[in-house]
Amino acid sequence: MFLKKLVPIIICTFYSFPSFAQLPQDSRRAGGIAVIPLTANTTQVFYEQNPVLITQEQGQRYAVFGIPLSTPLGTVTLTTNANPIQIDIKPYAYAEQRLTVKNQDYVNPNQEQLDRYAREAKEQNDIYSSFNPSTWTTFPNFIRPTAGKFSNSFGRKRFFNGEERAPHSGLDIPAPVGQKVIAPADGIVVQTGNYFFNGNTVLVDHGQGLISMFCHLSKINVEKGQHIRQGEQLGLVGNTGRVTGAHLHWGMSLNNARVDPQLFIK
Which residues cross the membrane (predicted)? Predict the structure, then answer.
């Protein structure tokens, strides 16, 4: 399907969009997003053989690529049905966070708990790696899922009781238990459940590999398979799972890469 001899196209690190654009912010860092204008003959874009979201704004088509948090500095290459695209990954200083968790099960789980986590992680990863058609023609305009100040939590290197864990892959919004959590954009509820680390959780598929996740809820108000409109209630803020206080964990996954949810908000 691809040409045998490929000539790389170097895309600028930042691209200036007109004010009407609903596209996410372009931030080419690990955990960020690359918004790439496409040539007329580029109709398919792939990263590691998986499709990348394509949308259109005012007659111009764009690839919207989620950059995995584990991506090292340097160049990432996307393949297409035409010429490959190279993305320059720039350094970004994420913060560190040291937390004290009273329940030791969430710091050093036993084998039964680890087995449960493995099952739940596979269930979630199967959803993150899915790529379903979108019902929109232009990129959806995202709104905040709940009221509260955004913490600088995405990408933080975390230490629980002094032990290092994986970087934080979502955005924490401190809020009181019982506060409404709404859908930031239209989508389909693809999973609900109570998970070991995430507590009561809802996952919403917005199309083309764009998945949102809402964790630690005190109550879930939707069901799997339900079509949800922007602003409709998903559940209530809580403190279920591994938490040190009531808050909403809002995660965004794009082409199976966890990316900074703040980049979707204007």
Answer: none
Any idea which fold 96-264 has?
A: Glucose Permease (Domain IIA) (2.70.70)
Round to whole Å and give the CA distance between 65 and 28: 10
Look at domain 9-89 and name its CATH class: mainly beta
* Domain spans in the chain, listed from the N-terminal domain onward: 9-89, 96-264
In this structure, what DSSP letter does residue 121 have? H
Instruction: Provide, for the chain, the percentages of residues in helix, strand and coil under a 3-state DSSP scheme, each rounded to the nearest 5.
Output: 10, 40, 55
- 65-96 residue pLDDT tens: 999 999 999 999 999 999 999 999 999 988 77
Among 127, 139, 159, which residue's Cα sits nearest to residue 63? 139
**pLDDT value of residue 155:** 82
- State the pairing for strand pair 53-57/96-99: unpaired
